[in-house]
């Protein structure tokens, strides 16, 4: 095709060697199309980067009343809870949800390549995952509304927590208690090696130490894949230091659970020998007596659904942006041992509670 030429249905039909009517039925998932023919038409559409016009779709049959929801994990409580809140709002509005589980890099490539040509939807909601530049272009080529929840995706209307603010609540709490040697267990997504450790939560750690006049020692930071077992391994690394920390800040509660297991197996008391704080307020955090920074997960899904309904009605989204978090103090944090060389050596520093 010559550059800057708009691709239309006739181009797809010509490339696939079928009539325009057949191409249209194949792209709309009509049941009376042979699978071989459908595959040929879809391949032609992908080769030409053809996208079904939302306006033409509505003229042909009105709105689809379908919303595509893209999620990297289904079994994890965070994503399931986000989805529960979102789906409840969309269901009440008589909108159907098409769930796309993109569990690894191959699933992501397949989704972002195929969705524009294969599905007609009124909107796309991205849950708890960053959207890369090429993926963003692919989404935007659909010409539909896009909303994000559970992560800061500032290219679209979104609802999430402020990760840096949540991190400061966690680290400032440890500083307020008198800890001066604080470790951090940062996480990366194991199925997406290109995703960095959470930048906001890591930045909060560095900034809090700097404001307290404390050095950021590289040895006190361990980065591991997300999960409880990696959290346990990270705690083992911190305990192997000549001078271990007196407190540990974990990027998530699940990682903190693993760290607590290692401490108990090593015969150390929590919080007398080591304090541990996480982020999220996992459903098991209260039973584990874990101090954490709670975020309203289901509420974020609900807010994203309401934002989307406002957009579909032609209005402006309300209730988006960042939502507040709160420190929940339980039994896993306390002052360092009296007389410890790593304990507070001056008057208490007011923490940002």
UniProtKB/TrEMBL annotation:
Region entry Disordered, spans: 328-353
Amino acid composition bias (Low complexity), ranges on this chain: 330-353
Domain HTH lacI-type stretches: 7-61
Molecular function, one GO term: DNA binding
Keywords assigned by UniProt, alphabetized: DNA-binding, Transcription, Transcription regulation
Pfam families (UniProt xref): LacI, Peripla_BP_3
Protein name as annotated: LacI family DNA-binding transcriptional regulator
């Amino acid at each position: 095709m010559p550059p800057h030429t708009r691709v239309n249905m006739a181009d797809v039909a010509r490339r696939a060697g079928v009539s325009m009517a057949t191409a249209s039925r194949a792209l709309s998932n009509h049941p009376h199309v042979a699978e071989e023919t459908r595959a040929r038409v879809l391949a032609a559409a992908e080769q030409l980067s053809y996208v079904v016009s939302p306006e033409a779709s509505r003229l042909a049959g009105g709105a689809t009343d379908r919303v595509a929801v893209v999620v990297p994990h289904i079994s994890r409580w965070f994503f399931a809870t986000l989805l529960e809140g979102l789906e409840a709002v969309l269901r009440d509005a008589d909108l159907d949800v098409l769930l796309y589980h993109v569990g690894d890099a191959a699933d992501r490539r397949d989704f972002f390549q195929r969705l524009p040509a294969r599905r007609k939807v009124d909107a796309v909601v991205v849950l708890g995952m960053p959207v890369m530049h090429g993926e963003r272009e692919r989404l935007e080529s659909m010409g539909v509304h896009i909303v994000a929840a559970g992560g800061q995706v500032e290219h679209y209307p979104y609802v999430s927590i402020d990760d840096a603010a949540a991190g400061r609540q966690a680290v400032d709490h440890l500083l307020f208690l008198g800890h001066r040697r604080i470790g951090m267990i940062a996480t990366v997504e194991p199925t997406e090696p290109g995703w960095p450790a959470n930048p906001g939560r890591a930045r909060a750690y560095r900034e809090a130490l700097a404001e307290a006049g404390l050095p950021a020692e590289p040895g006190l930071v361990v980065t591991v894949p997300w999960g409880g077992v990696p959290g346990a391994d990270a705690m083992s690394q911190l305990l192997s230091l000549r001078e271990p920390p007196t407190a540990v800040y974990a990027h998530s509660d699940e990682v903190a659970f693993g760290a607590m297991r290692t401490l108990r197996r090593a015969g150390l008391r929590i919080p007398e020998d080591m304090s541990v704080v996480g982020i999220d307020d996992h459903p098991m955090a209260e039973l584990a007596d874990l101090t954490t920074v709670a975020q309203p997960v289901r509420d974020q899904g609900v807010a994203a659904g309401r934002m989307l309904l406002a957009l579909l009605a032609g209005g402006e989204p309300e209730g988006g942006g960042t939502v507040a978090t709160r420190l929940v103090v339980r039994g896993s944090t306390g002052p360092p041992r009296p007389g410890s060389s790593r304990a507070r050596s001056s008057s208490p520093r007011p923490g940002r509670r």
